[in-house]
Amino acid sequence: MKRFIENYKNKTFDLIVIGGGITGAAVAYDAASRGFSVALVEKKDYGWATSAATSKLIHGGLRYLQNVELGLVRESLRERLILENIAGNLVYPIQFLVPGYKDLKRNKWLLRAGLTLYDILSYDRNRTWDKGKNMPHHTWLPKSKIMELEPEVRSNRMTGGSIYYDCQSIYPERLTLAFIKSAVRHGAEVSNYTKVIEFLFSNDHKVNGVRVEDTLSGSTVDLKGSLVINCAGPWADIILNLADKSGNSKHQIKRSEGIHILTKKFKTQHAVVMWTPSGRHFFTIPWRGLQLIGTTDKDYEGNPDDYKVSKKSIEALIKDTNDAIGDGNLKYNDVVHAWGGLRPLVDDQTEGTYESSRKYEIYDNASDGFDGLITVEGGKYTTSRHLAESVMKMAEKKLNRTPKNAITDKAFLAGCEIKDMKTFMVELKNKHPDFDPMTVEFLGRNYGSESNAVLEMAKKHPALSEIICEDGQILASVVYAVQNESARNLDDILMRRTGIGNIGHPGTKNLEKIAIVAAKELNWNQSKLEQELENADASFLLPQK
Q1: What is the fold, at CATH topology level, of the domain defined by 4-50+173-253+358-399?
Q2: pLDDT digits (tens, 9 = 90+) for 427-486
Q3: Predicted confidence (pLDDT) per residue in 372-409, tens digit
């Protein structure tokens, strides 16, 4: 997978997609698979922002059920099934435990009614290609059984609880990347670190392309296209405002901050639904040997480029956690790692973002005087594939073309060509007996059908078989990230290709080994190597303000 911007030859595309998060990736894949010529540009790395700031879930959304958004819940549950099928190595069923209490929002009968409706809306949940992914109906258990299963859960005023099923995306960064790779497989040309700085217009004032800057080289390039699709998420309004050369555009979206923390302070066997005193629910989820806690939902004002997770936000989540589960003594220094991001919302009628919808809207900006531009706002990770289908319906009309039928719900994503994960893992371990089973397991689940290529690289160069992460990742993945997945710095490698950094600092020695291998592949001099190490170290520090 190459950055096309480095060798661009003045090609005119049918579609130019702005934004390499899950929405842009899904739109590029859908369009390319239907026969459109597609260019996708991302100003930083693929999936670096909102798409990486998730709870690692592919789910219907109990909150939306609570808000009586039954259509959104059904769409999400249908898309959950599709993602289980097309990305079987990356999406799995997971058990949730939701305790009931003697209050209005969490009472037994309300919870049971809601989960029964959830079961009904997911009537097709077991129509998976992989028959090992069965999800039963929810069950109600007495208080004694809940406390036996999860002693960390608060027992005061508890009336019992339910076990229900949703899905976990164990590595959403690689799931986003799988959509990017699928787009490339169908002919799309993609480029990270390529920032849109200006719109191009034809003589009749129609948008016919964008001027971009290759931020790695500093060069600028004019990309021509029949239609530009703005999938910039929290930056969608900023991109749209670039189109108004008068400088009078005041288009603005609502943004919500969501953060997560990881800790070893306590452990649960299930994903557990927790509640704040105000009635907002959040989760604690077992993930890669740690406890993942999140998410929050708080208004964010200001430039999204300036966003960083704050100490105040982490402390607020710690307080919510202490109010809901465990011994109540989770402290700031118990946090192993923290991350956050901004969600774009389309509902500006509510006072708080928790009540805002996760629906999406697709705008034909011709009504704003920018014919040739479509803007996508809102949405949620789980429904991004279907959102892309909706975008393409508008694009078809704008381009006056009848494309091929959609295939994205029927074809495996790139690297996910596996129909039976259990059999695949057995065969992978048998094929590579010289590797630690933990390594083969990790690579098999995160790289899917591409895991053989990583393991064969390590066989060819034994030094690359060294384990550099506590759950088995090896140095060969660093080389693979650079050579095959457009990784251009340590942050790309650690956070969005190998997963080594997603569970906190890998240790000074391991970080130096990773950097030395990356430096060789990317031709870094000593100064650049030291700067990358310094940047990586700083990224793992918890905020002090």
Answers
A1: FAD/NAD(P)-binding domain (3.50.50)
A2: 999 999 999 999 999 999 999 999 999 999 999 999 999 999 999 999 999 999 999 999
A3: 999 998 888 999 999 999 999 999 999 999 888 999 99
For 244-261, the pLDDT digits (tens) are 876 666 677 889 999 999
For the chain, domain boundaries: 4-50+173-253+358-399, 421-539
Fold agreement between 4-50+173-253+358-399 and 421-539: no
- Contact at 8 Å (CB) between 26 and 233? no
- Name the pLDDT band for 305 (thresholds 50, 70, 90): very high
User: Does the pLDDT value for residue 270 go beyond 80?
Assistant: yes
Beta strands in 76-183 (DSSP E): 91-101, 139-141, 158-169
Q: Which residues of 132-156 are buried (b: 16+ CB within 10 A; e: fewer)?
A: ebebeebebbebeebbebbebbbee
d(CA 454, CA 442): 12
Residue 531: is it exposed, middle or buried by C-beta count within 10 angstroms (0-12/13-18/19+)? Answer: middle
- Residue 545 in tokens: 């303000």
| First and final C-alpha spacing in the chain | 39
The residue type found at 63 is R
Q: What's the CA gap between 333 and 321, in Å, rounded?
A: 14
- The answer, yes or no, to whether the previous bond of 498 is cis (omega within 30 of 0) is no
- Give the residue among 181, 160, 102, 213 at the shortest CA–CA distance from 450: 181
Nearest Cα residue to 237 out of 79, 155, 345: 345
CATH of 421-539, one of 1.10.8.870, 3.40.630.30, 3.30.70.20, 3.10.450.50: 1.10.8.870
Beta bridge partners of 101: 158
- What is each CA distance from 106 to 98, 111, 161, in whole angstroms? 9, 6, 10
Segments in 347-436 forming alpha helices (H): 384-399, 421-431
For 181-228, how does the pLDDT look when each residue is reduced to its tens digit (9 = 90+)? 999 999 999 999 999 999 999 999 999 999 999 999 999 999 999 999
Radius of gyration of the chain (CA): 23
